[in-house]
Design a protein that fits this description.
- The protein has 252 residues and is α/β, with parallel strands linked by helices.
- The protein has two domains: 1-32 and 80-120 and 175-252, TPP-binding domain (Rossmann fold, 3-Layer(aba) Sandwich), CATH 3.40.50; 34-77 and 122-168, SIR2/SIRT2 'Small Domain' (2-Layer Sandwich), CATH 3.30.1600.10.
- The chain contains ten helices and nine strands.
- It has a six-stranded parallel sheet, with helices on both faces.
- The two termini are 19 Å apart.
Length: 252
């Protein structure tokens, strides 16, 4: 039912010198990754806003780490879907392609994406809280342990002896200015911006479509439902990313 819009998008992508994709939780939800928001996202009667904060970590780092290990083991079960795989291929098939994501689950990397700006961090990394700056890959931690053993493990420490924390931007924290600058520059310089599976509610990521539109780009929304930016985009491809993106790729 979006074939007319798809024709427009295909024509603009073919003529583009630069294409940017901005992804949100929707594309990962298609792979079965929980959003951890709302009643379905409760864990031990805590919500994400209770635990993903600097204050929560300062009060009880073990509780916060138990939650993140629990999340990681559920994410580990998920696989990149067809939408993730198309975006990974776009790196080599589309000119000046850049991927910007709000997701922390690492599914884009597992799909093969390498040209990636992670605005909110990555759940498979930990960083030192003592200020030494070391960031550690924890993707194999607990990989061979039963899921029920994920909680209660020892608190991770850095080589310098400092306590590590998840390399995630928590509620109340600022995003990395360098990542924001790169994302805004990509949006301002692109000819087509694909906005995929995002609620368009979380800033500054929600500002990227406005930046791109003001610079003259075609902003394309790929989502299963309307969002606050729907009335402002140039084209809407209504449906799951795992269906829409392969259809777009097949026409290019």
């Amino acid at each position: 039912m979006w074939q007319n819009a798809l024709t427009l998008v295909v024509d603009r992508v073919r003529a583009a010198r630069s294409v940017v994709a901005a992804t949100g939780a929707g594309i990962s939800a298609e792979s079965g990754v929980p959003t951890f928001r709302g009643a379905g996202g409760l864990w031990r009667n805590f919500s994400a806003s209770d635990l993903a904060t600097p204050d929560a970590f300062a009060r009880d780092p073990r509780l916060v780490w138990d939650w993140y290990r629990w999340r990681r083991e559920r994410i580990r079960r998920a696989q990149p879907n067809a939408g993730h795989l198309v975006l990974a291929r776009f790196e080599t098939t589309l000119p000046g392609f850049q991927l910007v994501t709000q997701n922390v689950d690492g599914l884009h990397q597992r799909a093969g994406s390498r040209r990636l700006i992670e605005l909110h961090g990555n759940i498979w990394r930990a960083r030192c809280t003592a200020g030494c700056g070391l960031v550690t890959d924890v993707s194999r931690e607990g990989a061979d342990a039963p899921l029920e053993d994920a909680a209660g493990a020892e608190l991770p420490t850095c080589e310098c002896g400092g306590l590590q924390r998840p390399d995630i931007v928590w509620f109340g924290e600022s995003l990395d200015p360098g990542d924001i600058d790169r994302a805004i520059a990509a949006a301002r310089g692109c000819d087509v911006l694909l906005v995929i599976g995002t609620s368009a509610l979380v800033y500054p990521a929600a500002a990227l479509p406005l930046v791109a539109r003001r610079a003259g780009a075609l902003v394309v929304e790929i989502n299963v439902e309307d969002t606050p930016i729907t009335p402002q985009v140039g084209a809407v491809l209504r449906g799951p990313a795992a269906e829409v993106l392969p259809a777009l790729e097949a026409r290019l």
